[in-house]
Give the backbone structure.
Amino acid sequence: MNALLLGTALLTAAANAAEPVRIGAAGGVAGKVAATPRGGTAARALASGGSVFHKDAITTDAQGRLQVLLLDQTVFTMGPDSRIILDEFVYDPFTTKGKVAAEVTKGVFRFVTGKSAHGDPKLTKIKTPAGTIGIRGTFGAGKLDADGNLLVGLLGPGADNDADENQGGLEVSNDKGSVNLDEPGTGTIVKDGEGPSDPFKLSAKDLSDLETGGGSGEGSGDGSGGGASSSEEAGSDLAESKKDAGETRDTGETSQDNSELSTFAAQMTSGVQDRFAKWDDVRTIESGEALYYGQAPWNLAVCDGGACANGSEGEMTFQMNIDFGQRTYGGSGSSVFANDTDANANGGNPVNPSIAINQESFAALSGLAHISVSDAQHTAIIDILNDGGTANKATATLSYNDSEFIKGAGIATGTLNEGFIPQ
């Protein structure tokens, strides 16, 4: 069954189905990355653009790295010698309600929460041997060292940002205690057999451990930190903070250049090799006409009011013009459209959702290069990526809802090509 999970009832059905359910895609893959399905022993190699499925256990080797983008726009990034299990995923794109749970058993990991995580932190969580991280609308990182100690850092977004991001937080807990991280740029340590430490300001070494996996991962733990940049700047980098890069909360800590934390915080929104572009990134390309084009599976998950448990097989196409010189995107055939004509999908009746992307200017846009287009039945979300080059890829998610009877969704990655869409 290739249907995407769009509700609790579908998750139950998927758990009993013979075929895995696709819940996202891999990107920024480097080194050897393998995924093993639930209850399986045979691992498959993962490449950029490859599908990831509910209950997949994903591992990286000593040079391995990847990004996992889920349908609700949750992003997990795994460093070398790491392992993550995509334990639970329930998401309805029409209400943006859902639940995401993953289990990390070793290595370095980063996370950017999607639409499911802007409420109760119990609805988005990462389980580890040392404790559980409940996440509420934010991005951060963690590291499990060889001794089983867990370092967790909250990187943002902070209260001072202009990307319409609410300030989020983390709740780190185990059977010994619990602690909340509410200020970006702070962290906690969970040592074997102990509860989480009191929050402390992340040091330069802590940030290095979280970024590269080097060092012991025990952190400073005393707030002296060696001069990490201010928590506000860590959080607001996501939204192109207007704070002066030289400002720090603790004036006694000046050895760490704040720009290093700003750079690191930006990387939290992405994979090791690729990341979501900002409009400032896109504007560094000063001329040229191009288009993003990609295709991917697109599947009905609800047919005639019931789950498509018999499996539906469709395809979506994403195409979008971008004029770097004129600073515009969309127009002239730019759209995200799909079809599901499989006889199993809707009693043999074709379903062909489509939504146009109108021409708009990005000359004055700030923050992430994120585009959202919707009407009564469709929602298309496009994110431009820096994937080995500036703005050279884009992901598109297409969701469709025809009242209570037909629902479907899919995600495609488009690559940058010269010239506009042929007319």
Notes: The helical segments are 8-16, 204-212, 231-236, 258-267, 279-282. Confidence is low (pLDDT under 50) at residues 1-18, 158-165, 212-274. The domain at 8-273 is CATH 2.60.120.1440 (Jelly Rolls). The two ends are 37 Å apart (CA to CA).
